[in-house]
Design brief:
This protein is an alpha+beta fold and about 500 residues long. The chain has one domain: Cytochrome p450 (Orthogonal Bundle). It holds the Pfam family p450.
Amino acid sequence: MSSPQSLCFLLVGLVWASWVLLPKFQAWRSHAAMLNAIPTVGPTGLLSGCIGTYRFFTNAREILQEGYEKAILQYPNRIFKIALMDRWVIIATGRMLVQDLMKAPDNELSMIDAAAETLQVEYTLSKAVVVHPYHVSIVRTPMTRNIATRFAEVRDEIVSAFTDHIPPPDDWVKVPAYKVSFQIVGRTVNRFFVGLPLCRNSDWLELNTNFAVEVFISAMIINLFPAFLKPIAGRFLTRMPSSMKRATQHLAPIIEERLAKEYEYGTKDWPEKPNDLISWLLDEAQDEQRTVSDLVTRILAIEVAAIHTTAFCNALYQLAAHPEVVAPLREEIEAVVEESGWTKEAVSKMRKLDSFLKETLRFSGGGGLVNNRKVLKDFTFSDGTTVPAGVTIGVAAYMHHHDEAQYDNPYTFDAFRFYNMRNREGESIKHQTISPALDYITFGNGRHACPGRFFAVYEIKGLIAHILMSYDVKLENDGVVPPYEWHGPSMDPSSTGEVLFRKRRPS
């Protein structure tokens, strides 16, 4: 090859490098500089992702607590990062940064993409759930709108479930709190979602209540692998395919019957159409979404979010640990029910009970990370800190809720903390369990606050109210709540703790 030709190829190569490689190199350097400016908690170096993922899986509380305390006392910008297998997780602390996350547009910070990554939805549920998440609007509108209409059925299932699982004993009996919470919450939720008789089918309930746990466990397993191995891990190392098949056996006949009714009457509004989750989904589903497999997936996706056993179990432990709150709670419930019956309106008036539940969620709920967002574009916080695209941002909920900057005596359980706040002038409608705030992030914040929180709160308050009216409860170990269990960044109530029940006796 002649020298002119060599020179020509060299010049072309240099031009190509300047146009293609140089911008990529500059982008990489900018990305690295932004990450390097954020303090790291946990391992760093060549194997940081592998070691960090393992440590976060086994010691998330210690890592988050260390980072949170350093962010407050040492770090200038109140954020820190943790290395996982194939990504960085950024932890933001304090109200100002929580507000920044709340206000950020979806094309910069995406909640849906973060949830899909955290739960590995493509492998634990279906990619369609992320691409076309129309089921979220079902939870936000028809589901919430029908709480009052269907509350009598929910109340009926609460009474029936407690009678079946804890027949009111004359003397104290030990009840495995976590197991019974699953059974009772599962039945109550499914009465609202799929109705009788499926809500009492033992195989459906066993599948349904365990499916939520399987999703989280499967996601944690899949997240231990790099991206190219995730499909294999999802297929062979989890029980998701067999669980989907089992759910289809229960739901397919119901869905097919509903579709046949639509065809028979030529309309979606056929006579005596059930008012439940299956109908609400069919009302909104379009074309390829109106299939058994797609509808089964979405029903299970909603069930995963709705089987909030941990919240009820935590409330049960706290109720048993604090006998001093029983009399004022009972007095309020009896007065409200006498006036309004067992209705959604009545539950809305139970302000002391609402405060008790919110304090339970603040004190012993929320787990490690909430408000998770995937960074789609480089994002700058209001304090000037910039985080690069590709990372995930979250807020350490447990640490946030136990921060003295947010609450007085944060490590003290004060059942009527929020009731007293609501009694201040001009704050009557504030500080409710369903109301997100910069200091209360259990359900997220802003337009992406959990749409199912309304049903969850009314259901759990209904469950606790029934216990107070029907039983006496206590803990055997001098009122000490059994130790919490951390699974990765999730904090759960004790799975082995017991609560003593007996039929309520006159005060």
